[in-house]
Protein: D-inositol 3-phosphate glycosyltransferase
Amino acid sequence: MFGDQHVETSGGAQVSMRLQRRFLEKAGHTVTIVAPALHGARARQTAPDAAYLDIPSMPITLDREYALVWPGSRADRVIDDRMSRRPPVDIVHVQADFWGAFLGHRFARRHGLPVVHTMHNRVDVGIEATAPFPGLVLRVLNAWQRRALGGARGQTDRGRAGGRRAGGGAPAGRDGWAFLRTFARRSQAVTTPSAHFARRLEGHGAVPGGTVGARVDVVWNGIDDDLLDEVLRSTPDERAPGRPRFVWVGRMSPEKRLLPFLEAVAASGVDADVEVIGGGGQLAAARRLVARTRGAASVRFSGRLPYAETLRRIRAADAVVQTSIGFETQGMTIFEAAALGTPAVVSDPDLAGELGTGFWAVGGDVDAAPPASDASIGALAATVRAAAADISAGNAVQPSARVREEFRQSSRTASMIDVYRRVLGAA
Structure:
């Protein structure tokens, strides 16, 4: 497996890869995870692990949490040398969008191996939310991708099996979908953790081999079966008395919309307990906003917590709040919450549609086609008020029982192994 970030850093994709590795090994498979080496406190706190192939990297955030690897010949040599001392590889599973993806596809091409590429992120939405001049950034990314992968503009219209290329003879493109299409055309299978993102990928031609009619496989990211059962066993089913308890979990960056949530909490006037779990660049701004608005709710910043403890906090909450819109391809936290029996306030109608039941929708109608969203502070405040009123009255919505069973990692790993077998059988 190739990732953009070490799996011991924070992030939904990293949590998912750690779980996939564990359950694949339980099923008798051998897994190597190739990712940037850790820095700072994370490096000191993480024990050596034979499954991790750490590539020399440079930190790219002030807290040294995340790192970059230049996807060139030096990194290729490090990977080839270290992989030569490990068991032979059958399949390359890329779970990255940038340097990890470049390195994974380069490795597969050098060694004639099939690729399964899991697309976790809406690259265009993420860059628009986090980068100045996003159009320029996307053009640079596409150029970097073509250079790193040896691709060229104006790829042919024919797939490997003679099928017509999705997107016809159009130039490679310079937007986020062009970036994902290039990876998809070099993959024997493309998977994603949600049906709504799978349909968007197919609509934009980001399908295996680039062949018209090819499908993107939907394989949810899951939750550790044993940890889920342990948290459920060790926590009460009955709600503890007290005012409504909301929890927000995630990276404190603009696309996650923590600051609008805190503004909405203040505007809602709810008498509630709000816990914010996570870290990132907007922490100081979030603290200032809470101090300035002085709403009726109490807001506690708990920082980054171990995964198991985060799940316990979610289980103890009356509702998880999901605030990003258009960015998440699955929204792990709301699925974790549903598996634990905790409902959610959901801003993104696509994610609400994946859950099915057990949420308070912010603003628009999730059954509309396409579903409507409302990013306003007022809509979020109104939904927080409605959720708090339902919780206080004992009428909280109930999460889907289907999610609790199908979100288990054992089920998800079995589905991914089916994808691997299909790809290997066709190779």
